[in-house]
């Protein structure tokens, strides 16, 4: 058996643009024959995939899978909306999400390693760059409820974790709200201080000829309005604007019998290409 040198692996990497691990494997399979190894890579679609790897892939889908232990969401992208409708592309997106659910890798890079060969083969078959671009994993906690909302055949996906039992329907309602309202933070305390300071500066610059105590009240009012726009807990619930999301969750928790201390623990809003 021939010994594959590191120099040959590096050379094959430079010629093909394929990752070191795949180059080493191809050389091993080819018994150290460089040209045969390159041929193996081309047949598997890997070398072709590397050439397309610099193309922008902003179309795609987000797929979600859920079981009793976790929720996973994976965004898979391609270059054109035409390929989004391709059965092979959609099957690949589903398979990657299923793989994530069963193996629950800790990072996006680890997930990519699991599916790299299939991805590269699909690139060779379809002729567009394909990327697994985002991966979210929520490990379910005891005493929590989880809601998932998928909009536009996977163009927008929202995941909500509520601390409180029997709140799945409420979590789904909040997830639908998130899809439409686009919150950036959960609560005011989650907004970075530099952003809060900038909002205060902007508010002060708009006020002229007022006493300091009046200015401060106006600034506080504008800041609270800002929080009501960007913080999920402070947004007005789309289905009942008499309540904020925070108030709605607590009200429903009390009605359901889960207590009036139910709160949103976390949320995720994903949008293709976003």
Search tags:
single chain; 274 residues; alpha+beta; Helicase, Ruva Protein, domain 3; Tetrahydropterin Synthase, Chain A; 3-stranded antiparallel beta sheet; 11 helices; 8 strands
Outline the structure in words.
With 274 residues, this protein is an alpha+beta fold. Among the domains are: 6-43, Helicase, Ruva Protein, domain 3 (Orthogonal Bundle), CATH 1.10.8; 54-140, Tetrahydropterin Synthase, Chain A (2-Layer Sandwich), CATH 3.30.479. Helices cover 50% and strands 21% of the residues. It has 11 helices and 8 strands. The strands form 3 sheets. Strands 1-2-3 form a 3-stranded antiparallel beta sheet. Strands 4-5-8 form a 3-stranded antiparallel beta sheet. The protein has a two-stranded antiparallel ribbon with strand order 6-7. The longest helix is centred in the middle third of the chain and has 19 residues, at 108-126. The mean pLDDT is 90.
Secondary structure: elements and pairs:
Layout: H1 6-16, H2 20-29, H3 34-43, H4 46-52, E1 59-66, E2 70-78, H5 81-84, H6 87-103, H7 108-126, E3 131-139, E4 144-151, E5 156-163, H8 168-181, H9 193-205, H10 212-230, E6 236-237, E7 240-244, H11 245-256, E8 263-271
Antiparallel strand pairs: 1-2, 2-3, 4-5, 5-8, 6-7
